[in-house]
Design goal:
- Pfam families: Trehalose_PPase.
- Its EC number is 3.1.3.12.
- Helices cover 39% and strands 20% of the residues.
- The protein has 325 residues and is α/β, with parallel strands linked by helices.
- It folds into 2 domains: 190 residues, 3-Layer(aba) Sandwich (Rossmann fold), CATH 3.40.50; 74 residues, Alpha-Beta Plaits, CATH 3.30.70.1020.
- 37% of the residues are buried.
Length: 325
């Protein structure tokens, strides 16, 4: 009876098996992604067809920040936008009303982007500064303010009453999570992010259980998820979808059929905005993803490079359309 060596005793065989496994997995992923693309076609490859209904209408552009304008990075404080992306965004904002809707602090994202012709909606839309007119919403949660340039704006903060408790929660979370290496607490003003991208995989569930246990003592808050992050938000009826509706109203398009909203985002929290666009029945919900995932978006872009290419196409399309009229 012959002796058969195991793969662990034959490094070449082990390497060959691993290579074949990786190839099979890669082929399966590519096949899955190709099938997903048929449902959510590339916004770059579909660009001309997408823009046909937009001729003669006003396009309003909304964008997430992390994973859309800036790549996802290990340290959220290092999520800088590239100079090329900033230039593309600036050109878009010179032509179309443009807003960044993010879970981050509004002032933090503005510091990253450094553009003054963009509306910034931070904390998932719970912290917004918008132009004074037109205003077509009720006055609840609104107040007059001046922005950094001294221009008159309207501040909208529907979760303002929760600020003292949020600050208390921040202190508790920072103290309790010290025991878990790699955990990072981010103060996003009206919400709190607990990042676990740097946490050892065996400690992630312990961190989640710890956060859940802490939040159970605060009935006014809820936990949601994102990409390697636990989000803690006030328990109010507000999300990126509601923020999108507010901004559409604030910009004066609510009673108009001559506008099309375009929203580009990569995160689970962006799905609320995609749903609003679907419910409106017109516009462009675009997911940023290089893997298949459940989404309400109609179109897709693979990564931030494709987002930038799409924004450049948008500018060129508008310039070409204007020149031909």
């Amino acid at each position: 009876m012959g002796y058969q060596s195991s793969s662990s005793e034959n490094p070449n065989l082990e390497s060959t098996l691993k290579s074949r496994f990786d190839e099979d997995r890669s082929t399966a992923l590519m096949s899955s992604y190709a099938a997903w693309l048929r449902k959510h076609p590339s916004a770059l490859e579909s660009f001309e067809g997408m823009m046909m209904p937009a001729k003669g209408k006003s396009l309003v552009v909304f964008l997430d920040y992390d994973g859309t304008l800036s790549p996802i990075v290990e340290d959220p404080d290092q999520a800088f936008i590239s100079d090329n992306m900033r230039s593309a965004l600036q050109e878009v904002a010179c032509i179309f009303p443009t807003a960044i809707v993010t879970g981050r602090r509004r002032d933090k994202v503005k510091e990253f982007v450094q553009l003054h012709n963009v509306i910034y909606a931070g904390s998932h839309g719970m912290d917004m500064l918008t132009p004074v007119s037109p205003l077509r919403c009720n006055n609840m949660h609104k107040s007059g303010a001046l922005d950094e340039e001294g221009d008159e704006v309207v501040s909208y903060q529907p979760a303002k009453a929760f600020l003292p408790t949020i600050q208390e929660l921040l202190k508790v979370l920072k103290e309790k999570t010290k025991t878990i290496k790699g955990a990072m607490i981010e103060d996003n003003k009206f919400c709190i992010s607990v990042h676990f991208r740097r946490v050892n995989i065996e400690d992630v569930n312990s961190l989640k259980d710890m956060v859940k246990s802490i939040i159970e003592a605060y009935s006014g808050f809820r936990i949601t998820g994102g990409r390697k992050v636990i989000e803690i938000r006030p328990r109010i009826d507000w999300d990126k979808g509601r923020a999108l509706q507010y901004l559409i109203q604030n910009l004066g398009f609510n009673d108009s059929n001559d506008f099309l909203p375009l929203y580009i985002g990569d995160d689970k929290t962006d799905e609320d905005a995609f749903k609003v666009i679907k419910d409106v029945g017109r516009g462009y919900p675009v997911i940023v993803s290089s893997i298949p995932k459940e989404t309400k978006a109609s179109y897709s872009l693979r990564d931030t490079n494709e987002v930038m290419a799409f924004l450049v196409n948008l500018v060129n399309w508008k310039k070409s359309s204007s020149a031909s009229n």
